[in-house]
Design goal:
By secondary structure, this protein is mostly beta strands. It has a domain of 115 residues. The protein is built from one helix and nine strands.
Length: 190
């Protein structure tokens, strides 16, 4: 090429260059948050898990969309010492904890909006009623995972005796006396 000569563009490049510029502009606009803030906002993402083993720490405060029980004691997975769930088990169960005045309540449902036991709403001779509350926000995953809540039982309830545990509106289970190991009583599969 000599000075003063002009390069010739092909007709395709006259269309392609503006098209690429328009696509890049649209992508940059789509990536800009509302209000134009340039700082990214960290959002925790749940870690997928194919295991039903308990989490090492309560997930109530770390779980996306979830909230903790008043004592912050719920976690994704089964209670320590419970390796599996019988095939005939339904959507919830209860079992004594190693701790003297605590009961494990296990529910199955969304990992981001779990149904958790938040406390005992009634206690009669041989009967304990556990209040269940769905936690989470407006958007819940459709996975089915176990979530274990730990609820305190009143001093009038002894784990040396078998009791009936009413699990919210889900049903009731007959929990045998504590025998030194976590034994779960499950609702029947519907």
């Amino acid at each position: 090429m000599t000075v003063g000569s002009t390069a010739r563009r092909s007709p395709g490049s006259r269309v392609l260059v503006p098209l690429i510029a328009a696509v890049l502009g649209a992508l940059l606009t789509a990536c800009t948050p509302p209000g134009g803030e340039s700082e990214p906002t960290p959002t925790p993402s749940p870690t997928p898990s194919a295991s039903t083993a308990p989490s090492p720490e309560p997930s109530g405060e770390q779980s996306t969309g979830g909230s903790a029980t008043p004592t912050g004691q719920f976690f994704r997975g089964l209670p320590p010492g419970v390796e599996s769930v019988p095939g005939s088990a339904g959507q919830a169960g209860a079992g004594w904890s190693d701790a003297e005045r605590q009961l494990f309540v296990v529910t199955f449902g969304s990992s981001t909006c779990p149904l958790v036991g938040v406390g005992v709403t009634g206690s009669e001779e041989g009967l304990l009623t556990v209040e269940l509350v769905e936690t989470g926000g407006d958007i819940c995953t459709t996975d089915i995972v176990p979530t274990t809540s730990v609820v305190e039982v009143p001093g009038s309830v002894s784990r040396d005796d078998g009791i009936v545990v009413v699990l919210g509106d889900l049903g009731e289970v007959s929990l045998p006396a504590w025998d030194g190991a976590t034994v779960m009583a499950w609702l029947p599969n519907a």
